[in-house]
User: What shape does this take?
Amino acid sequence: MKKILTLVAAMFISATAFAGEFADISIADLKKAIADKKVTIIDVNGSSSFKAGHVPTAIDFSASKADLASKLPADKDALVVAYCGGPACSAYKAAANAAEKLGYKNIKHLSAGISGWKSAGEKTEAAN
Assistant: This one.
């Protein structure tokens, strides 16, 4: 019985590890990646929210999803970060999954989202 439970637990852990979940990135780590110009950020909050204010350098997923491949770096190992409204929001998965389908392997999630970014006192950019 112990072996069966261990096997079932291992299968569950394996399945959830590959179920489209993406590792989180902290605000501090994202700020460093932005400063080092080593990240492509995708905002999934919609174009009106994007225009009002987004994480600096972010791409508007709503406006770019049709040609997302042209907005992402050539290096498939480059860091790509997707975010949406905040910790309870899962809309980021649309962009993360799209990047994954394009072959990107280093995709992370800013679970704090734009609300956490602003709450931390970080600056946003407004779109023109």
About this structure: The chain has one domain: 22-119. The first strand starts at residue 23 and ends at 24.
